[in-house]
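step=encode ok
step=design start
structure_in=
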């Protein structure tokens, strides 16, 4: 009781202490959860259909797709543009997959596990499998046995623990998902195809529109010929039309506009003189050095490596063509300056002939087993067919017909043997842990060849030149740190200002300039009127920019589209006046005389095209020609370029019998073709600016990471 009394007597103090403790707990919890929230937001690339896409997961998708590209293309080196395309494709694939799954759930479409297995290893596998060159035989055709081996390897119990299989696991994970999404897409397209079908009225209308034409006389009262000085379009009229159109036509992403200056990094006169002096100093040694040491000398000093390749009259550089086939071994050309490059050539050998190209095929053995190699070569020499050897060693080997190749398209170690080996003979080259056995299938006729050693040095900007240009750009930025000064100084110094408008936050390049993504990122971080620091865009461009416009509005502004809306409304007002002026004439000739213009002709006008003779695309005039009785004048028709009065004179009909069933079939086939061609979207996409992706919410934060 005494303790309780003490608490009561100090209740205010107790409440203060407890309150402070609770506040500290709440604030601490908030800060911790807030830190976690901000940490998660920093890791979020975006949201698709309510699902958060984290940077780690997105990078995994990008890495997976990159591996697919490497396997499919046989390349390992991708430039910035290629990686950018891969990231964009990975993002679009996630959107398409989410959109299809969303619409699939709405209409009851799905791909079951058993369907997916059947699409992979069933009797009729997906075309995405059949189209992979990794599963093709030497003829280029899909081989089910190759795929079965691959499928079993990636689904083996120890596949996850086998480092050699990891690359194939990633490759297969991508295609397995792609097969599932593709099949869901096919189901969706099938639903649309069966929902949009032609009937007999469509068939007859389509046949008539294609085969029936009208020869028409007409008068065109051009909008350009009408004096519009008395007509005015009010701001309220423009705004009313804008409000009517903006939801459908003027939605936009946040965008930026800027102006920039490129300080091109080009060689100076000193750089040119230095390279010229280097090649002049090297000429004596290049001329006198022993042939055995020539390759080492050239490869240590020249931009063009010497690898002993054989040049023909079609492959030798044009500037050396006469020299290569008329000089004698050891002769050297004069120093040649061309395309910012100094060069000279020394003839190593000529007067011999080799084929221009060879046709090869090969077996790849995973182990460099000399006994096995000798066995294959001896068997072929004694009458066995090379293709039988391929079949015999297929279990542990790969084989392929490479086809026709020139010396320039082959690695040196293969080319040197391929072009000196007789038809049907074989040679070997090591490859990794294994060996390749090649057979020469065919050879073209021998043509004259020559060997040249080429000493070439391109004139490039030196580090001193680069620093000078960089400092010039730096000085320009320091002295002109606001938009007005930036633009005025550029004009005063005669520097070209380049405009880049409507840049969106995920745009990879500015006006196609290499490595200019950083400039886009800056534009979305800067304030209007700011001047950038220096950006190096590619190896030869030093760029500075000023941000001239920031537009974060959901729609294009009225100011942006006011001119086109104003012209449209003005044409409408003109048309009303013009139609009134065209009343009262009893013939086209009378109407033409009244307006001071001529009667024109449109031959074989058809509903299927919408073209109205010399007037071009005028579907309303075309329609009027088919709705007006022959030799009668139509009422004035408001068109794209003016007001028309038409008078159909005769009808033309193509020979051909109307086949209702065939016409319906043709229309339906066009529907089936056009639906997937327009991205799986129905007619609503073109009429209402609707796409399947409108079905899902997309938040794109990639610009924060790339």
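sequence_out=
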């Amino acid at each position: 009781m005494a303790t309780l009394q003490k608490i009561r007597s100090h209740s205010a103090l107790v409440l203060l202490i407890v309150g402070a403790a609770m506040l500290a707990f709440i604030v601490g919890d908030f800060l911790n959860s807030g830190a976690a929230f901000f940490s998660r937001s920093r890791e979020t690339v975006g949201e698709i259909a309510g699902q958060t896409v984290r940077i780690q997961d997105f990078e995994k998708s990008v890495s997976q797709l990159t591996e697919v590209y490497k396997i499919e293309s046989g390349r390992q080196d991708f430039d910035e543009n290629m990686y950018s395309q891969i990231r964009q494709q990975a993002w679009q694939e996630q959107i398409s997959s989410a959109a299809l799954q969303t619409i699939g759930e709405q209409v009851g479409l799905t791909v079951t596990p058993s369907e997916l297995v059947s699409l992979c290893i069933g009797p009729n596998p997906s075309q995405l499998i059949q189209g992979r060159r990794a599963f093709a035989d030497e003829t280029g055709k899909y081989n089910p046995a190759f795929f079965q081996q691959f499928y079993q390897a990636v689904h083996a119990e120890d596949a996850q623990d086998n480092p050699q299989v990891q690359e194939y696991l990633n490759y297969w994970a991508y295609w397995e998902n792609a097969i599932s999404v593709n099949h869901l897409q096919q189901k969706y397209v099938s639903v649309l195809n069966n929902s949009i079908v032609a009937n007999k009225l469509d068939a007859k209308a389509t046949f008539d529109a294609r085969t029936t034409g009208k020869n028409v006389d007409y008068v065109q009262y051009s909008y350009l010929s009408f004096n519009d000085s008395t007509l005015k379009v009010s701001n309220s009229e423009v705004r009313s039309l804008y409000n009517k159109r903006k939801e459908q036509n003027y939605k936009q992403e946040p965008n930026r506009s800027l102006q920039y200056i490129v300080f091109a990094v080009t060689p100076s006169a000193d750089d040119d003189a230095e390279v010229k002096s280097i090649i002049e100093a090297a000429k004596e040694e290049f001329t006198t050095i022993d042939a055995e040491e020539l390759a080492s000398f050239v490869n240590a000093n020249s931009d063009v490596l010497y690898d002993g390749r054989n040049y023909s009259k079609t492959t030798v550089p044009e500037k050396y063509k006469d020299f290569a086939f008329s000089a004698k071994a050891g002769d050297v050309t004069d120093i040649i300056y061309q395309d910012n490059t100094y060069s000279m050539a020394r003839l190593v050998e000529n007067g011999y002939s080799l084929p221009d190209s060879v046709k090869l095929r090969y077996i790849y053995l995973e182990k460099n087993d000399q006994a096995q190699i000798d066995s294959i070569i001896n068997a072929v020499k004694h009458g066995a067919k090379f293709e039988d050897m391929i079949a015999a060693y297929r279990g542990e080997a790969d084989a392929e017909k490479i086809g026709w190749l020139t010396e320039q398209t082959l690695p040196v170690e293969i080319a040197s043997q391929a072009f000196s080996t007789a038809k049907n003979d074989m040679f070997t080259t090591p490859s990794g842990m294994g060996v390749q056995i090649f057979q020469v299938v065919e050879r073209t006729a021998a043509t004259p060849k020559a060997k040249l050693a080429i000493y070439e040095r391109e004139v490039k900007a030196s580090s001193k030149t680069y620093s000078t240009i960089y400092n010039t750009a730096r000085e320009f930025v320091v002295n002109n740190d606001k938009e007005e000064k930036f633009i005025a100084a550029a004009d005063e110094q005669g520097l070209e200002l380049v405009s880049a408008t409507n840049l969106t936050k995920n745009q990879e390049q500015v006006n196609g300039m290499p490595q200019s993504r950083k400039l886009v990122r800056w534009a979305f971080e800067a304030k209007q009127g700011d001047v950038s620091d220096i950006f190096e865009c590619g190896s030869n461009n030093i760029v500075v920019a000023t941000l001239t416009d920031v537009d974060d509005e959901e729609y294009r502004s009225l100011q942006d589209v006011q001119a086109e809306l104003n012209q449209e409304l003005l044409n409408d007002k003109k048309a009303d006046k013009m139609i009134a002026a065209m009343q009262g004439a009893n013939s086209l000739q009378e109407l033409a005389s009244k307006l001071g213009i001529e009667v024109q002709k449109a031959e074989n006008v058809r509903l299927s095209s919408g073209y109205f003779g010399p007037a071009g695309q005028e579907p309303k005039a075309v329609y009027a020609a088919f709705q007006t009785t022959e030799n009668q004048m139509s009422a004035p028709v408001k068109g794209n370029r003016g007001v028309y009065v038409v008078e159909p004179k005769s009808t033309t009909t193509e020979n051909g019998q109307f086949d209702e069933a065939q016409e319906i079939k043709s229309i339906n086939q066009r529907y089936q073709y056009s639906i997937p061609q327009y991205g799986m979207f129905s007619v609503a996409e073109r009429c209402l600016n609707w796409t399947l992706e409108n079905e899902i919410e997309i938040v794109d934060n990639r610009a924060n990471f790339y």
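step=design ok
step=annotate ok -> Confidence is low (pLDDT under 50) at residues 1-39, 395-399, 678-690.
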